[in-house]
C-alpha cells in the first residue's frame, strides 16, 4: 500500500509541507530510509541520519528547517510520539492470514460466530462459544465452552481462552497467551505451615508432612473493552467470582495474573510482572518489568513502580515505588546510594568506636 | 446440578442446620448470592454481606447465630478453608469438553490408551505413548514418543509432554505447559569466562570471544502422583538421568524447573518461580511467587520463602527465608526496616565524626 | 544404537584404553550404570559410584587408574566437560518423530520448503514462508507469512514464528516459544504520567485518567545462525526495524526479549531473563537466571550478571555484576555482608551517640 504525504498528514491530523503528492510505502529510521520511505526524524539529533539515508520525506520536529535537511516533503506534528500511533496503524502490513473460516478449524455446532468472523487453520471453538463481529481467531487458537469474545477481536496464533471467559470488544492477544487456567489454591486438613508462618512470622512449630488438597476454581475471567494481552501470559480463573481486568488495560509478555485479582482501567503491566491471588489494582497503574505483587493486597490508582519492584504491602494512590521491598522511589534511590557507601560506613563506625573508647579512657 | 444442604453437608463431613432440604445450585460471596446460591460466610465480617445478598443458606463460622443472620439453613464446618476444597470440587462445572476421542486427533498406531481415555480435537499422541484409565488429554495437546501418563490425568488445552516423560496418576496440567524441553547446558572448548568467573569471583583474565557447544539432554522427566502444573510452565529434561518431581507437589503458572533438578513431595511452587539446573529441593517446601533458586544447591525440607526471594546458597531444613540474598526471615525484616532509616544513619555517623573530632581537639 | 569404546573415543578426539571393542548403548551416572552403559566418572569423587554401579567402561579423569577402578575399558579426555558435548550428541535418542510431511499439516500453496524438510502433524506453514534444507518443523508448530527459516532448523512442538521473521541456519527452539509477537508500545495523546515521572523522578503533577493508544510493530525479528531458544520464550517484533539476535546466542526458558532489542553474538541468557525494549546487548554476554534489564540501555561485551540481578543503567564491557540495583559483583558481595551486620550497626551508632553525648557533657 502506498499513501501520499498529504493523505498521511490528513490521517494523523498533522501539517504537511512541500511535495505533498509524493507517495511513500513504508517508514524507516532516517539512516536506513530509502526513497520510498517516510523517515522518522522527530528530534534534532536525527538530522545526521537523514543525511546518511535516502529519504525524500520525513516526519520532523516542530520548527525543523526541512528544506535545509534535503527533504522534498515533511510532516510536522505537535506530539511526535503520538504520531507514531497513527502512522504505524496506517502502515501495518498485518500477519498475512487468509480471511474466512479455514476448513481445518474445529468449530462446535453450537458455537455462535458473527457472519464475518475469521477462524484460522486448526483452531478449536468450543460448545456454546460466542464471537462478535469482525473478530479474527488465529491459527491453532482455542476458545472454550460458553466463552464470549466481543467485536473486533484479534487473537494471534495459539491463544487459549478457557470456558466461560467473558471478553469485551477490540481484544488483542499475542501468541500463546492463556486466559482461564485454574487458580493456584490448595488447603491442608490441618492448619498448614504457611498459614502458621504467616501468623507467627517464623515459628513453624511442628512441621509435620502435609499434603495439599485442591480448591477448584468455580469463577472464570471477565475482561473489559480494548484490553491487550502479550505473548505467553497467564490469567487465572477466580475461585467463586471472576478474576477481572478493566477497560483499556494493556499487558505485556509473560505476565501472570492470579486468581480473584481485580485490575482497573487503563493500566500498563510490563513484561514478567506477577500479581498474586486476590490482589486489587486501581486505575491507570503502571507496573514496570519484573514487578511482583503479593497476594491479598491493594494498589491504588495512578501508582507507578520501577523495574524489579517487589510489592509486599498496600500502596496508596499516586505513589511512585521502587525496590525490594517496594518503597517510595526517592527513599529507594537514597538506599541504593547508601549501598555504594555501606562498606565505608562500617569502617567509619568501627573507627569511631575506637576513637571514642580511647578518648573516654583519656578522660 | 443442584444439591440439598443436607447432601452438601454430608459430602463435606460438616453439620447442617435448619431447612436442610433446601436445594442450591452454586456458591457465591455473601453480597452477590442469589436465592439458589450457598453463600460463603465463614467469618463474622461477612455478616453484613449476607444482609446485602439474597442467600437463603450459607456456610457460616462456628458459633454463628445463623437464624439471626436471616438464613433458612446453614452449614457449620470446623475448618472453613478446608470446606472450600470439598465444596468447589462438588460444584465444579468443568470445561464442557465432549468425552471420547475426537476424530481430528492424530494418534500414532502404536500408542496405548486405556479404553476410557478422552482425547480432544487436534491433539497429537506420539509413537508408543501410554495413557492410563480415566485420563483426559485436552484439545491441541501433544504427548511425545514413549511418554507415559498414569490414570486419572487431566491435561488442559495445549499442554506439551515430551518424549519418554514419565508421569504418575492424577496429573493435572494447565494450558500451555511444557514438560520435557531440552536442558540449557553448553560448554566451550576452553575454560569459559563463566567458569573462570565462578572460580575467581571477578577476575575474568583474557576474555576472548567463545562459542557455545550444546550438551544434549539424554534424560527425560519423572513426575510422581498427584502433581499439578500451572499454565505455561517449563520443566526441562535431565542431562543423563531424569529431572524429578515428587508426589503431591503443586506448581503455579510460568514456573521454570531446570535440568537435573530434584523436587521432593508435597511442595508448593508459586508463580514465576525459577529453579536452576541440578538443584535439589526437599519435601513440603513452599516457594512464594518470583522466588529464584541458583543452580547446584540444596534446599532442605519444610523451607518456606517469601515473595521475590533470591536463593544463592544452600538452605537447611525448616528455615523461613526472605530477601535478596535469601536470609532468615527475621534478619531480612530487620534489614528492610534498616533501609527506611539508612539515610538517617549516614547523617548520624557524619554528625558523630564531626563531634568526636571537635571534642578530641578540645581535649 | 550401539557404539564401541573405540568409535566413541575417535568421535570425541579422546584416548581409549583396554577393551576398546566393548559396545555401549547409553551413558549413566556411575552408581546407576548397567553393563551396557558408559559411566561418566570424570572426577576422582565418582570412584565410589563406579563400585556401586555395574559399568564395564567409563570416561575417567586424567590420571585415573581405570583398571584399579574395576573397569575393562576407559576413555580419557583432556577437558571432561567438553567431552559431554560430543558424547551426548552421539547418543541423543531424539524425539522419535516420523520424517516427512504429515498429511494433517496445513501448508500454504505458496510456501517454499526444501525437499527434505519434515513437518509434523497439525503444523501450519503460512503464505510465502521459506524453510531451508534439512529442517524439521515439529508437531503443531506455526510458521507465519513470508517468514524465512534457514537450513538445519529443529523446531520442537508448538513453536510459533510470526510473519516476516528471518532466522539463520541451525536454529533450535523448544516447545511453546514465540518469535514475532507485537511490541509493547503505547502512547497517550498528552504527556503520560510515566513520561512525566521519568522526567521529574517522582512529581506526577496532575494525574488525570489517560487511555493508551497502540503503536503498531512494523518491524519483525532477525535471528542469526546457531541460535537456540528455550521453552515458552517470547521475542517481540521491532517498531520500525527488526529486533535482532546475533549468531550463536543461546536463550533459556521463559525469557522475554522486548521490541527493538539488539543482542550480539554468543550470549547466554538464562531462565526468566527479561530485556526491555530498545536495549542493546554486546557479544559474549552471560545473564544469569532472573536477570532483568531496563529499556533503552546498553550492556557491553563480556558482561556477566549473577542470579536475580536488576540492571537499571548501562554496563561497560567486561564487568561482572550482581544485585538490585546491579553493581560490580565485589561491591554487591560487600553490601550483602553488610546486610547481616546492619542491625548491629544501628545499635553501635545508637550506643556511640549516647557515649559521645555523655562525654561531651562530662567535658
From TrEMBL, chains A, B, C:
Pathway annotation from the record: Bacterial outer membrane biogenesis; LPS lipid A biosynthesis
Active site (UniProt): 259
Taxonomic superkingdom: Bacteria
CDD domains: LbH_LpxD
CC annotations in GO: membrane
Keywords, in A-Z order: Acyltransferase, Lipid A biosynthesis, Lipid biosynthesis, Lipid metabolism, Repeat, Transferase
GO molecular function: N-acyltransferase activity; UDP-3-O-[(3R)-3-hydroxyacyl]-glucosamine N-acyltransferase activity
Entry's EC annotation: 2.3.1.191
Catalysed reactions, semicolon-separated: a UDP-3-O-[(3R)-3-hydroxyacyl]-alpha-D-glucosamine + a (3R)-hydroxyacyl-[ACP] = a UDP-2-N,3-O-bis[(3R)-3-hydroxyacyl]-alpha-D-glucosamine + holo-[ACP] + H(+)
UniProt xrefs under InterPro entries: Hexapep (IPR001451), Hexapep_transf_CS (IPR018357), LpxD (IPR007691), Trimer_LpxA-like_sf (IPR011004), UDP_GlcNAc_AcTrfase_non-rep (IPR020573)
Pfam families membership: Hexapep (PF00132), LpxD (PF04613)
Stretches that traverse the bilayer: none
Domain UDP-3-O-[3-hydroxymyristoyl] glucosamine N-acyltransferase non-repeat region: 22-89
Function of the protein: Catalyzes the N-acylation of UDP-3-O-acylglucosamine using 3-hydroxyacyl-ACP as the acyl donor. Is involved in the biosynthesis of lipid A, a phosphorylated glycolipid that anchors the lipopolysaccharide to the outer membrane of the cell.
Similarity remark: Belongs to the transferase hexapeptide repeat family. LpxD subfamily.
UniProt protein name: UDP-3-O-acylglucosamine N-acyltransferase
Gene designation: lpxD
Amino acid at each position: 500500500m502506498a499513501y501520499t504525504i498529504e493523505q498521511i498528514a490528513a490521517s494523523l491530523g498533522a501539517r504537511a509541507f512541500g511535495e505533498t503528492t509524493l507517495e511513500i510505502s513504508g517508514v524507516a529510521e532516517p539512516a536506513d530510509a530509502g526513497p520510498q520511505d517516510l523517515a522518522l526524524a522527530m528530534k534534532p539529533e536525527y538530522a545526521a541520519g537523514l543525511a546518511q539515508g535516502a529519504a525524500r520525506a520525513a516526519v520532523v520536529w516542530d520548527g525543523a528547517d526541512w528544506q535545509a535537511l534535503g527533504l522534498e516533503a515533511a510532516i510536522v506534528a505537535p506530539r511526535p510520539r503520538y504520531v507514531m500511533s497513527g502512522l504505524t496503524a496506517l502502515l501495518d502490513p498485518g500477519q498475512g492470514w487468509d480471511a474466512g473460516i479455514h476448513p481445518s478449524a474445529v468449530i462446535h455446532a453450537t458455537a455462535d460466530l458473527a457472519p464475518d468472523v475469521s477462524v484460522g487453520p486448526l483452531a478449536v471453538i468450543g460448545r456454546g462459544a460466542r464471537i462478535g463481529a469482525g473478530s479474527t481467531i488465529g491459527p491453532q487458537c482455542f476458545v472454550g465452552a460458553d466463552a464470549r469474545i466481543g467485536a473486533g477481536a484479534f487473537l494471534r496464533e495459539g491463544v487459549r481462552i478457557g470456558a466461560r471467559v467473558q471478553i469485551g470488544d477490540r481484544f488483542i492477544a499475542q501468541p500463546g497467551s492463556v486466559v482461564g487456567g485454574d487458580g493456584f489454591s490448595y488447603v491442608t486438613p490441618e492448619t498448614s505451615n504457611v498459614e502458621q508462618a504467616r501468623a507467627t512470622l517464623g515459628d513453624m512449630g511442628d512441621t509435620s508432612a502435609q499434603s495439599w488438597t485442591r480448591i477448584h476454581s468455580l469463577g472464570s475471567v471477565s475482561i473489559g473493552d480494548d484490553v491487550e494481552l502479550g505473548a505467553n501470559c497467564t490469567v487465572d480463573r477466580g475461585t467463586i467470582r471472576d478474576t477481572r481486568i478493566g477497560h483499556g488495560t494493556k499487558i505485556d509478555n509473560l505476565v501472570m495474573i492470579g486468581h480473584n485479582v481485580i485490575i482497573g482501567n487503563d493500566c500498563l503491566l510490563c513484561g514478567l510482572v506477577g500479581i498474586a491471588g486476590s490482589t486489587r489494582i486501581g486505575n491507570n497503574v503502571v507496573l514496570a518489568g519484573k514487578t511482583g505483587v503479593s497476594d491479598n493486597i491493594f494498589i491504588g490508582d495512578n501508582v507507578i513502580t520501577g523495574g524489579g519492584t517487589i510489592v509486599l504491602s498496600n500502596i496508596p494512590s499516586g505513589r511512585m515505588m521502587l525496590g525490594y521491598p517496594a518503597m517510595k522511589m526517592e527513599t529507594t534511590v537514597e538506599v541504593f546510594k547508601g549501598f555504594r557507601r555501606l562498606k565505608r560506613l562500617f569502617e567509619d563506625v568501627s573507627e569511631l568506636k575506637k576513637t571514642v573508647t580511647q578518648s573516654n579512657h583519656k578522660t
